[in-house]
Design a protein that fits this description.
The chain has 272 residues and is mainly α. The protein has two domains: 81 residues, DNA polymerase, domain 1 (Orthogonal Bundle), CATH 1.10.150; 155 residues, hpI Integrase, Chain A (Orthogonal Bundle). 52% of the residues lie in helices and 4% in strands. Strand 1 and strand 2 form a beta hairpin. Helix 2 packs across helix 4, helix 7 runs antiparallel to helix 9 and helix 7 crosses helix 11. The chain is globular and about 65 Å long. The N and C termini lie far apart (61 Å). The model has no long low-confidence stretch (mean pLDDT 87).
Length: 272
Amino acid sequence: MASQVSLRGQSESTLNNYVRRVALFVLHFKQLPEEISEDEINEYLVALARDPKSPSRSSFKHMVYGLRYYFRLLGMNKNAIALPSLKGDTKLPVILNRSELKELFAAPFLLKQRIVLTLIYSAGLRGQEVINLKLGDVDLERKTIHIRQSKYKKDRIVPLSEVMVVGLKKYLSAEHPHIWLFNGKDGGQYSVRGLSWVMREALKKTQIQKKVNLHSLRHSYATHLLEDGLNIVTVKDLLGHSEIGTTMIYLHVAQCEKLTPHSLLDTLYGRR
């Protein structure tokens, strides 16, 4: 499984997730998946889908993905196809408005925590992308951030705002990080869990009632870019999406100004 994940260019976290789910399945039945009948697998998945401890059905979905991957790896495509299909999540992302963002960024006591939350929003970064940033990936003079080998094994360059440059200079002068832009407690790499904790603690100090998390900052970034008039193809590239369809969901959230219907001849001859 590790070899196949590497060959397909998938992340180590994907491998760990698949292996963990298949291991739980094997421990439950004390048999390998290919030795279990289709009826037994379905009963197990039904129980998992109804588990009140997992209201988002994440355990169920990850188990299906893991088993599907396992069966295909063994060349047992019929078994993979027989697994239940998963409908896409139709929930719209929750967005923080600009006033809420200002309140959030002012909440943390530590400069480092204020900077890291602001940077995630200002560049639309994923949590994993933030912790993987090295000092050399941030060019304060050119005002760019180089995100290396992120999801889908793609590099991309995103702009760094003037305000963020000022904040980062203060942070670098005060903290003196080495290798990584944001070091953990032991001087090594920060963790996504640590970032999520910073977000939760900051939210506690605000009046924000929305159910948001760290990734909501990236959702807010994409939505606000569309509201500011940036075209969706550019937003797709800035987010590092592989498909435009993934980016399209933000069109359902963005409050964009609607143009008054008019005749194209009026604009063609300058009479509008």
